[in-house]
Structure formats: structure tokens, C-alpha cells
Predict the 3D structure of the following.
Amino acid sequence: MIPASLLRHKWPKRHQYVIEECRALDVRDVLSHLDAFHAAILRSWHPPTHPRLVLVPNDRGLSRRWWFRCPTCRRACESLFIPPSVTREDWRCRVCWSLVYASQRYGCQHPLRKRLTHRKRLTHLKRLAKAKRQRERKEARQRREQEEIAMREARLQDLRRADEAQREATARAFEEKCAEMQRQLRAELEADAPWNQEVLDAVKRGELSPRSLRARAARLLDRGARQLGVRMPREGERTSGSHSAPTSPMASLTRDDIEWFKKVMAEVDEEVCRFLPASGDAPVVTTRRRRPPSSPRAQLT
């Protein structure tokens, strides 16, 4: 049987403290005093802030890592601790001090779980750095999108301004062309006024008959045709099909040309009829002879 005194005896806890309650010293806290040159060649190193501690490198793997050597068990460890009850600078690993994590003793809901250890601090810093990188990438993407939108708007404004300038230039050119055509028309009317008046006076005096006016117009057409190097069709000749070869290789009469000549002759007859007075007492006002614009046929009239 087990004695009652043994049952009432309070045995000391094997793990008296948890890591979250102890002072911690991590390797990264002292590696800032070691430069890259000595970190590559030294086999052991005593940090200036803690001269009694020794750091040894581990060359296994792709990079060289540094570890604390526990002063008690000589084990390589990443962190050393001092429990709250120890006042002297006695740094040991968690195995020598029999330390456990708060989650191993109290569970995950204990307030000590909220205290940041070095590993938790590193994880928290990594999360903060990752969130910062994501935020910077998002801001950079938004800036690029805004710059692209501004560039597109500027390009659209440039296209609109160019379109408006082209329209204005076209409108100005059209107005100038219209004004030039009006000036040419006025000049032609002023130039034709004496000739029309002479023809009207000759018709009044009886010196010019409609037949002679028609012959004069035909002679003018023949002269223009000779200048172009073509032969005018005579009365009775066929107006369709092939005709005689032109006297010059510059041009040749076509069916459209013949129809245009007929139209000009009809206009000449109409002009002659308008020149003749209706009853012999009041002269008829003449009109300007029509000429096809921007065509070499205008020289025939």
C-alpha cells in the first residue's frame, strides 16, 4: 500500500517555467556585430556583447549558418534562455533549463501564447514585409493603370485636336476655293460683258444673223479642236463607233466629247435666240456662256 504522506506530498514540476516567461537571446541578435569577411573565415566567434558565449558555424547546406554553443551541454542551438528566478547571466538552452512552450502546458488559448517569441517575431515581421510588398505592388499597378489611362486620354485629346485642326483647315481651304471661284466668275463675267454687248448691238443693227453666229461658234470650236489635235465631226458623219485617227497623239474624240459639242452648239442656238428682241422694241438681256470648269474643253468656247 502507498502511504498517505506520499500521496499528500507535492512533487516539484519537471517543467517549472515556459519559454514565453524567460529572457531569450537569439543568434540574430548578436550577428549584427560580425562582418561578412570574418563570418566567412572564422571557425568560432565570441560576440562582444556576451564574451562568455561562443558561436560556431555550420557549413552544411547551401549557406553558412551560425549557432550558439550551450555552455552546459555543448549543444548547438539557435536561442539561449534565462528563467525569471535566475538573476545572474547564466545562459543555457531550453533543454538544460527544462523549458516548454506555453501551448504545451496551458493550451493554445492561454494569454502567454500572445507574447511574441523570437520565432513568432520573425514570422510576424515576414507577414508584415509580405503585406508591405503586396501593398506596394498594388499601388504600383494602380499607378501604372492611372498613367496608362492618362496617356490614353492625352492621346485621345491630341487626336481630337488634330481632327478639329484638319476640319478647320479643310473648311478654310473650301472657303478660300469658293472665294477664288467667285472671283474668277466675276472676272469672267466682266470679261464677257463687252463681247456680249457687241454681239447684242450687232444683232440689233442686223449685221449678225443667227446663222452667222452659229458659224462663228463652230469656227471657235474648230480652232479649239485643232489646238487639242483632234478633228471635229462634220454634219452627216456617224457619231458612234470608230472615227478617223486624230492628227495629234495628244487626244481623240469619244462619244462623250461629241455629245458635249452638241450641247455647246445647242447652248449657242439658245443664246442667239435670247439675243434677238421679241418685238423689236426692247433688247433681250444676254446671259453668260457656260463652260465646264477644270477641263481642257473650256478652251473650245
